[in-house]
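Predict the 3D structure for this chain.
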Amino acid sequence: MIAALDHVQLAAPEGSEDALRAYYADILGMTEIPKPPALAARGGCWFQAGPVQLHLGIEQDFRPAKKAHPGLRVTGIEAYAARLAERGAEVRWDGDLPGHRRFFSHDPVGNRLEFLERVA
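Done. Predicted structure below.
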């Protein structure tokens, strides 16, 4: 039986770790967490915010997915969107999900991310 989602892995091209750190840590406010030594040798980086983990792994012939994405629940979505925009990240609002405020952004290598908050 599945009990919880442990993490989401996104792909990234070789050599993109510094750009990923700038986006996920500096812009999104996540904390970089250490990879186990055997996995660290493969490149990439891992990030965490509360119980949410995103793993960025290096993929040869990387191409970002056009539709696939993690959906990240946030609180204070207006302020969070402003934080991203102030730091130069794309914020594209979408009103198509009933009962939610949400927007999309792309990381520096083109991975699509959805940020959403329930509304009463």
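The beta strands are 8-12, 31-33, 45-49, 52-58, 71-73, 92-94, 100-106, 112-118.
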